[in-house]
Amino acid sequence: MPRRAEPSVSIDLARILIRYAADHGWPAEALWRLCGLDPLQRQVGGVRIPAQRFDALWRAVDGNAGDGLFGLGLGRAVKDYAGGHLLYAVLLNSPTVGAALAKFCRYHSILSDVVQPRLDPSISTPAIRLEPPLQQMHLGLSQEAF
Question: Which of 135, 133, 132 lies closest to 145 in space, CA to CA?
Answer without folding.
Answer: 132
